[in-house]
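Hey L., structure's done. Input below.
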Amino acid sequence: MSDTSSSPHTKKLFLMMVLEFLIWGAWLPLIWGYMGKDGLGFTDLQITWVGSAFAIASIVGIFFSNQFADRNFSAEKFLAFSHLVGGMAILALYWVRDFPTFFTLMLIHSLLYVPTISVANSIAFSNLKNAQKEFGIVRMGGTIGWILAAWPFYFILGTKTGTEAILARDSIFLVSGIASLALAAFCLTLPHTPPNKAAAGESSFAWVRSVKFLALPYLLVLFIVTFIDSTIHNGYFLMADGFLRHVGIADKWIMPVMSIGQVAEIVTMAILGLVLVRLGWKTTMILGILGHAARFAVFAFMPESQIMIILVQVLHGICYAFFFATLYIFIDAAFPKDVRSSAQGLFNLLVLGLGDLAAKWLFIPLQGSLTVNGVTDFKTLFLWPTGLALGAAALLFIAFFPPKSLGAPPEDVKH
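Output:
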C-alpha cells in the first residue's frame, strides 16, 4: 500500500500493540492457579486482593491518563517510563513468594501499566492518516500479542506436571517483564507525540459532563449492561484456568487452548463492520453477550467433553468483538465530539476497572465457597455467569432502543 493511502508509522504502531498486550496476556490467565494452594499458598482473600490491584489501578489510571498524563508528557516518553518501571516490578515477582511483597509489586506494576493502554491508543490515533480505516489493523496487533504470550508456556511447562508445573508458572513474570522492558526501549523509536494540552477540545472536567449523558435511557441501559458484561468477561479469566485443569487438560496446553479465543477474535474483528451493517447495534451486542452464556453453559453442563470445551473457546471472539469493540464504535457515534474521549474513558472505567473489581470480589469468594475438600462444584459456579449473561442480554433486548440515526444528543443533556 502506498504512502498516500497508509500511514508511514503503521508497522511501528502495530508492533507497539503486540508488545503492549503481550505484557498483560503473559500473566493474567495463569496467575490464579499459581497463587493458590498448590502454588504460593495464598488464601482466597489474598488472591482477591492481588487481583484487585489491577482493577484499582484501572480506576486510578483512567483518570490519571485522561486528565494528567496525556496533557503533560510526550506520549512516547510517558509510555517508555511506565513500561521501564512497571516492567521491573512485574519481573521482580519471579523471585517473590510472600503476600505483602507480591501484592505491593503487582500494585506498582498495575498503576504504571494501566494508563499505557489508553496512551498507546492515543499515540496510534495521533499518527494514523485514516484512523477509522487503519486503527483496526493496528489494534489487531494487541490480539496477536496476547496469542504470542500463550505459546512460550507450552515449552516451559511441557516437561512438568502437577505442583511442579504450577510453581514453574513463575516464568510468566519473566516473559511479561522482559516484554515490558523491550517495549520501554522500543517506545523511544515511536513518532513524537507531544502532550495534548487541550485534550481534543475537552474541558478539565469533561468526564463529569459525559456522565450527564447517562440521563438518556438508552445510554443508561448500555452503561448497566456494560458493567454486567465486563464482570462476566473478567470472571472468565479467573475461573477458566482451574476448570481446564479439572477436566484433564494438561498445564502445558492451557494457555494455547485459551488463546483459541484470541485467534477467533482476529477473524471476528475482520467481519465486524459487515455484521454491524446487516444486524445493527442492538442485535450485534446481544449476540456478543449470548456468547458468554453459551460458553459458560457448555462448561456447566458438558464438563466431560474436552472437545466441546476446547471448541467453545472460539466464542471469545464473538464475546469481545461483537460487544466490546461494537461498544467503542457506538460511543464514538453516540456522544458529541467534545466529550467523546471522556465518554470512552467512562465506559473503560467499567471494562477495565469496576467490572474487573466486581469479578474478583464475586467469583473468587464464590468459587471458594463452592469448593469442599479440594473439589469445586463447577456446575453451580458457571450457572452464575450464565444467568448474568442471559439477564444482561434480556435487558438489552427489552430496554435498549438507540436512535436509528445517531446525531447530537438533546440540548438538555449537553450542559
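The longest strand covers residues 371-372. The chain has two domains: 9-197, 206-409.

-- N.
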